[in-house]
Amino acid sequence: MRQFSSDIAFTPAVKAIQTEKGSRTSYARMEAGGSWETTVTPELEAFLADLDMFYLGTANAEGQPYIQYRGGSPGFLKAVGTKTIGFADFGGNRQYITSGNLRENPKAFIFLMDYARSQRIKLWGNARVVEGDSELLDRLRDPSYPGKAERAILFDIEAWDVNCPQHIHKRFSQKQVGPVIEQLQSRIRELEARLQALQ
């Protein structure tokens, strides 16, 4: 049994290094003040609603880690309960590494990154593959996405934490920069037409 929700990451070995490096006191204050969130809050739900990608970490029975990129329409990773989030899983390269890992080891990690706003959230928990639940798939699928949802993956949250924005390089999606580029190109065409008229 963990004393604090952050103990999922702050193991005795981690706390020993924090002590050695001088950061344990501040993290002990954080623990005493309530530690990390363990449920889907309105803030987490709002963050998910804007997100169009995330990274899912799993490990096999031997502990070999695997990270997988997941992308979709904004909000495709959804809250399905007070402690559970999930997404519709579509056919890909048919390696099934994540599915196989979760069959052996339910421990999982989700890394949410909003590059444009320099924000990130880390979630620890357990994940499972759900096959044949059409009601759940209907709830999770994006009707505008043409792919066929093959299964759902649900993630039960044990703890989550917001990371500082330090060292996050700004990146913008095509959807975000497209309108700006179109506006600039339109202005260039307008100015070129004016130049042409002056010649």
What is the spatial order of strands in the main beta sheet?
2-1-5-6-7-4-3
Counting helices, strands and paired strands, the structural category is alpha+beta
CATH H-level superfamily title of the largest domain: Electron Transport, Fmn-binding Protein, Chain A
Instruction: Tell me what portion of residues adopts beta-strand conformation.
Output: 25-35%
What overall form do the CA principal axes indicate? Answer: globular
CATH topology of the largest domain: Pnp Oxidase, Chain A
Helix % is 25-40%
- Regarding CATH, which class of the largest domain? Mainly Beta
Distance between the termini: 80 Å
Oligomeric state of this protein: single chain
Indicate how many domains the architecture comprises.
3
DSSP, total strands: 7
Number of contiguous helices:
6
Detailed description of the structure:
The chain has 199 residues and is of the alpha+beta class. The protein starts with 11 loop residues before the first helix and ends with a helix. It contains 6 helices and 7 strands; from the N terminus they run αααββββαββαβα. The mean pLDDT is 91. The chain folds into 3 domains: 1-36, no CATH class; 37-168, Electron Transport, Fmn-binding Protein, Chain A (Pnp Oxidase, Chain A), CATH 2.30.110.10; 171-199. β3 (78-79) and β4 (84-90) form a beta hairpin.
